From TrEMBL, chain A:
GO terms for molecular function: ATP binding; ATP hydrolysis activity; transmembrane transporter activity. It comes from Arthrobacter bussei. The lineage of its organism: Bacteria, Bacillati, Actinomycetota, Actinomycetes, Micrococcales. SMART domains: AAA (SM00382). The keyword Cell cycle applies. Gene3D superfamilies: P-loop containing nucleotide triphosphate hydrolases. Keywords: ATP-binding, Cell cycle, Cell division, Cell membrane, Membrane, Nucleotide-binding. It is found in: Cell membrane. This is Cell division ATP-binding protein FtsE. One of its GO terms (cellular component) is plasma membrane.
UniProtKB/TrEMBL annotation, chain B:
Belongs to the ABC-4 integral membrane protein family. FtsX subfamily. Residues 184-303 form the ABC3 transporter permease C-terminal domain. It is found in: Cell membrane. Coiled coil: none annotated. Part of the ABC transporter FtsEX involved in cellular division. This is Cell division protein FtsX. Keywords: Cell cycle, Cell division, Cell membrane, Membrane, Transmembrane, Transmembrane helix. Forms a membrane-associated complex with FtsE. It comes from Arthrobacter bussei. It comes from the Bacteria.
Amino acid sequence: MIRFDSVTKTYDQKSRPALDGVSLDIDRGEFVFLVGASGSGKSTFIRLVLKEDRASRGAVYVAGQNVANIPSWRVPRLRRGIGVVFQDFRLLPNKTVFSNVAFAMQVIGRSRAVIRETVPDVLATVGLEGKNNRMPHELSGGEQQRVAIARAIVNRPGILLADEPTGNLDPTTSMGIMKVLDRINQNGTTVVMATHDDDIVNTMRKRVVELHHGSVVRDDAQGIYIGETGVVVE
Amino acid sequence: MRLAFILSEIGSGIRRNLSMVTSVILVTFISLTFVGAAGLFQLQIGQMKGYWYDRVQVTVYLCVDNSSETSCAAGPVTEDQRAAIEGKLESEQFAPYVDTVSYESQEEALGHFRDQFANSPIVDSVTADQLPESFRVSLVDAEKYEVIDEAFSSEPGVEAVSDQRDFLEAIFRYMNWASVVALVIAGIMTFCAILLIATTIRLSAFSRRRETGIMRLVGASKAVIQLPFVLEGVIAAVIGAVLASATLYGASRFVIDGWLVNTFPQTAFISSQQVLILVPALILLGAILAGLSSLLTLRRYVKV
């Protein structure tokens, strides 16, 4: 589903590359933790998948297609196949929960009828039944992140990228979010989650890819979060 | 659905940015008013040139009844005098100077007068016998007007020889200056309008960066992301253009129809109907101006 072929990304000639010769294969339906300290290249990985940046060397394949070969007018189509969730939720503060999720469908031209039918289903999937008309500021952090997840999956993307989705949440709430992500993964969506939350990684027992200074230093099928390899738990 | 969505985005953009949108409307209004004023001057010049420039090279006016000129003391021109004048104009002596000669009777003179002063109330009070018959002489070299003047001024039956070129040219020169000044002001104001539209779009893009960021992530197309911004600028500019058109029309009704035509009944003025010709041009110009400057701005400030 996602393949990195000796990918190097250099933002600035003088400093060391953000990603350095990374080769990685993520299959359809996998759940992968991307771990590593701040600056280890997790966010760069996500940006390359979304074609927000282009690789300096090597090739990035998403759904079998080399993203370097996607013309700019086709990039929106690539992004429709990928949902993204961030640490800071990024909800629209002046829209209700329903409207926030509906927004993702409106902007790609879905009909009102389809939106009215789909959004409540998706909100139920993330455990937000009955909160359609709440405003984001009336919700807890965990609930806001659920809204963000609902928005990311409402267009049924094949891939869900989560960049530190539990970074702003307490451990109990985080586990709730992980259950939601796991459920989405069970439904066939490939999930890639960047995190440095060791509890979560150790509880979930999923594949763990560890980045350090832009290189893959570990790739365990049912990994745990290991602190000894130089990874600092922040 | 997408159209409704884009419209609602434009609405919210304009609401959030109301003071900037208002200033865009006002600046395009002023700049297009000056563009339009320059256009009106050119139309007026064209109007006057159209009738005058080609034909009134030199006119030999013949005496009419009740002429106040001393040269016509003997009464109106006679058949013989007219034939003599025509013969002289077409003689070998003047062949190097005279290109063509045409005769205009009093009836024809009235016809032309009516065409030329169609917008003026004086038309109704003029009759054919008040207007002199004339020979319209176009010259091989228009500068040699003096030759005809000297040769025919004292000819019996000739009321006067006139060359209205100098007079017309002075007027056209002033009007051209006025239209150049209007164009310069229009140019400066248009430049302001472009900068202001660019700034407005930047502010608008900044205040909506959350929305556009999310739109990008969920795969909205470039058109859906950028169109609201472009249309916001275009709508403001078109409102400005409509205001400018209304102002020009109002001004032409008030100044030309209401004042100039009555004060200078001898001059042919453009009608306020002709101002309406400018309206589509002004609106199109406003829309293109806003569309281009916002597209260029978006390229820099809204990532797609």
